Amino acid sequence: MTNQTSRRAQALRAASRFVGAGLLDQVVIATANAANTLLGGVLLAKEQFGALALALSVGYFSMYLNRAIVGDVLLALASRYDGDHRVRLVRNGLTTALCSGLVTTVIFVGIWLVWPHNGKIDLHELIWLTPFMIPIMLHDTARCDYLADRRPEKALSIDLVWAGTQGIAILFMVLIGHSTPGGLLAAWGIGATAGATVYVLREGHLPWGGNPKAWLAETRHLSGWFTATAVVAQVQVLSISFLVAGKLSKIDLGNLRFVQTVQLQPVQNLVAAIQGLLVPRASRNAATAAKPGAEGLEAAAALRRQTRQLAIAFAVLGMLMVIIVWPLVSWLLTRTGKFSEAAPLALPIALQGAIYLLQVPFTAAMRGMHRARMLFVQYVVFATISLTGLSIGANYGLHGAAWGLLTGSTAGLIVMMTLYFHALKLVGPPPESPATPRLDTAKST
């Protein structure tokens, strides 16, 4: 009994270290990403801040599109393998990310050359990201490699390199008294370059040593739908920036992005951290659930139990967030001269964050079950209703636009839960498995 208790205690300590490293890793990388927006809001004039927000929107669009092609697939697929198969997947994924970075670099230069450098939608600051898109893609892929391999402490280490290097670059810019949108963007890219370099030197995975064709051939059942989903999701995010800047103004876009960064981005970062921890585990359970016998039934029950328990926990966390964060952010914004007119945005954005939290366990389970096509359907509904709500709400100002975005998030949650319960019917051992154990497990869950 003593030995069994000791093993359980050791397992709990190991699990706590794993979760703690994963959450801390997301805090660090989120800080690196949020620093551009937060410091831009403080250091730059409102017109300059709006231009920074537009450039960042395009940069994030490209990075998250690459994550769909490579990073999300590593989380859902590489976590099922060990040995040479896994090493080959990682190398092929890194080379695919390298190719994504090269294509993005060419596109950014083209946009900078042909896009008008004036007007409401101004992308001239995008040129500052051009030299850094390759290391940004590689670093993001490296993080997903570590998370898929259940080594979040390694992901944390390269993210600390990113954040630390970026912080030094920003500090230097502030000390010389020359704060610009381009400087903030370049500091972000320099940090990514440092983090990606440490990964390559440590792991010995040369970015050009893989085969993108082999990657696409092996992962197309996931990467195709994940990419389509990411395109819809990121077009939705990018369209928000363009619609707000076009229908309202760059100043309104700056107000919206600042409140979202303060209030919604921490939630999105927590969501990303939890997804990185849950998807590999859900994927292993879903794979095991396909086996006949007691092992498959137990894994299917574990997947259901994990989703149910986390849904309850995140629902409570979401309610607490609205109750506490909404009045606090609203009060703080009213005390600032620069963003006081954005205070009414605090409530709809707080509610949107609560919905994102509640959706986490369902999204993780769907990714683990490899229901990529269903995720695509959910994002199409979410994006369509969000942009429609935004467009209609913008007729009543920025406040109306924020409530319009909330309608899309609500619809997305409803669709996600509906698809999840449908997907559960497909989880478990094949039909030829004994029927009685399946009924017993269903009663227990």
TrEMBL record:
This is Membrane protein involved in the export of O-antigen and teichoic acid. The chain crosses the membrane at residues 21-45, 51-77, 89-115, 155-176, 183-202, 222-245, 310-333, 345-364, 376-394, 400-421. Keywords: Membrane, Transmembrane, Transmembrane helix. The keyword Transmembrane helix applies. It comes from Dactylosporangium fulvum. The keyword Membrane applies.
